[in-house]
Amino acid sequence: MDIYMALIKFHDVLRDSIQSLLGTNPSADEIIKSYPTAHLTNCDMIQTAGGTFFDLFAKKGRNEWQEVEKIISHFKKFKMKQSALIRGDFLFGYEPQPYDVVEAIVLEFAEMGINVFHNFHGMNDHRPLAGVIKAVKKAQNLGYDIIANGTICIEDNPNVTIPGCLNFAKKLDEMGHKDFYLKSASGRLDPNFVHGLTTQLIENFPHQDITIHAHSTYGEAPSCYMAAIQAAVKYKKNITLDVQHPALSGSTAHPSMTKMAELIKNYPDNKISRHAPILNKDAIKDSMDKILKLRFRYREYETAYDKDLIDSMYKARVPGGASSTLKSIPGLIENLSRLLNLDGKSDAWKQIQINIYNMQTKILKDLGEPIQVTPYAANTTGQAALSLWNELEGKDRFETLYPGIVNYLVGEHGKVPDTINQKLIEKALKMKDISEPINYKSSLNRESKLESAHQNLLKLGIKDPNIRQKLSFVLLDKKDHVINCYKNQNISQEKPKITFFATKPVPFKDKKLSRDGKTYILDIRDAIKSIGGVPLLQEIAERVLHLKQLKDRHYIFPYGYNDLESIWYNTNLKKLNEIIDLIEDKLLADGFTSTQVLNLTSNQGQITILDCIKDVLEYRAEGLYDFFLELLASDSKFLSQSK
Fold first, then answer.
1. Bridge partners of 152?
2. Structural fold of domain 8-301
3. pLDDT tens readout for residues 203-244
4. Which segments of 306-353 are extended strands (E)?
5. pLDDT band for position 514 (50/70/90)?
6. How many CA atoms lie within 13 A of 184 on its CB side?
7. Contact in structure between 272 and 263 (CB atoms under 8 Å)
8. Phi, psi of 446 (to 5 degrees)
């Protein structure tokens, strides 16, 4: 097949999908096995490292270096171009590191096979990016095929303006970054802003190509991607979009590669549509079931959709996955549940989150409107939780300051907006026992740490510490984890247990005959396997959720498309009806008797297929099963026979 990517290219951000949807809980082996055709989809590049793909591997008890290297090495053997997200001096963590640590990390990842570092600072401060650039240049001099993208963090935020982004882009360009990476962790974006910024970047920096990265949390990413495309194609410039396999897309992750390809292909202007990437649909399809099974296994970590919750998050510009920050604050949930009179209520956790995000909206101005990306997003949400707690106890909302917010206010994390409430800065300075804000110190001017780590590891019993052990000792909170990995005594977290209906059925050779002596006794596990297994249940869930989001007007649609909302809705509803109405036929074709089909599809005192569908739907969104019944009530053959 003639592969023609034209001006529009796709970047498969696999790493971010595992982080955003599944909380970086699957192991490297699970990730690789679930997506065996990732190298064949015809995406230009794949993201395999960075973000939480280091510290969270360690927190799950895994050897972080083995995990990272497995993934990168896997794609290196296919000669795939690979990227990693790196937080400047902060690397993969939340505090800045000295240059010896930065350089060692860059060289280790270059050696493993990373080709592009997306080098970013959450407040678009160039100072924390200097160390990574210097280290990348050293790696280039050593012969590695590697560059550093200059990342510009963007969102619908008073601190993010086109002139400000252009000034920052000039700094990135002067420092030696190759190409620009427009990153929106929250996905709160205005398409007009994206179009204007993309246009200005192209006009002012014609030698730099652009990639855009936006999460789908609020349904704005596809429209913003199309806005960037319109600007780039006008100038005949390359534009790359961050996308994901359809089974790992949407929700708090990123747009689907297949859906974006269709949007571009069907754009009414041929000047754009002819540049649509040509994906390998067979390769995408071949990994579909395996990925859906992985997503099902780790479904408890995925953020459930709720319109009221999403609306409160939207106002506060909260990135998806913020709940993990809240759950890490000791005593928070129990105390807020008590103070909000939510004890014993089924929706307590949802209401706690809504109250916290409403508070976050209120405190953003006092905090200087930090861009909601790591580490500022987690710190802002943490402060919102403490502020709510304070107010409910009759105290000033800033009576207690979240540790990360203190570091931000005094300048330890870099750029501090002029609009911050000065009383908060004074409070933070007092807490730090310093008289004036800190002038951020680049990694290039920080005291080295690797030699100290070497000496500490010697004392802890590692006779000849290698560079990876020293780096882990510096970067990870739990120092004993490094020793446990050295002794091969680290214990990885167990996989979540699969619910009964999704487990393997009893093999036919071990099945028992029913009383008639002719038919085998079959249970719900056999039925689920016959209709398509967990992948089919997951597909039903994703289609119903998509329909619910369309009904809730969750998406903004790109300019130039007629009736796209109704097309998406009707297409999904038609496919959903087809899936449901084939269930009985599949069971009969697989040897189930009419009586067995009746028992497994109607309420006869045992678990039914509808119960299994309900289980999967309610994990995706509370009340989604009732919405599903409403959707199909009028014309579903299967539902009418199941009543």
1. 182
2. TIM Barrel (3.20.20)
3. 999 999 999 999 999 999 999 999 999 999 999 999 999 999
4. none
5. confident
6. 30
7. no
8. -100, 155
Looking at the DSSP bridge assignments, the partners of residue 12 are 46, 243
Domain with CATH 1.10.472 in the chain: 307-443
Q: List, in order, residues 6 or more apart from 246 with CB less than 8 Å away.
A: 256, 257, 258, 259, 284, 288
**Is residue 3 within 8 Å of 261, Cβ to Cβ?**
no
pLDDT, the chain, mean? 94
Query: Residue 32 burial by CB count (10 A; 0-12/13-18/19+): exposed, middle or buried?
Result: middle
Domain 307-443: assigned CATH number: 1.10.472
- Burial string for 510-537 (b: 16+ CB within 10 Å, else e) reads eeeeeeeeeeeebbbbbbbbbbbbbbbb
Beta bridge partners of 180: 150, 210
Q: Please give the Cα distance from 378 to 384 (Å, whole number).
A: 10
Instruction: Please state, for a pLDDT cut of 70, what percent of the chain lies above it.
Output: 96
Residue reference for tokens 């939207």: 314
- Tell me the C-alpha distance between 600 and 602, whole Å: 6
Residues of the chain within CATH 3.20.20.70 domain(s) are 8-301
b or e along 216-249 (b: 16 or more beta carbons within 10 Å of the residue's beta carbon)? bbbbbbbbbbbbbbbbbbeeebbbbbbbbbbbbb
Query: How far is it, in rounded angstroms, from Cα 474 to Cα 476?
Result: 6
Structure tokens at 179: 């190409």
Angle of helix 332-339 relative to helix 348-363, nearest 10 degrees, comes to: 90
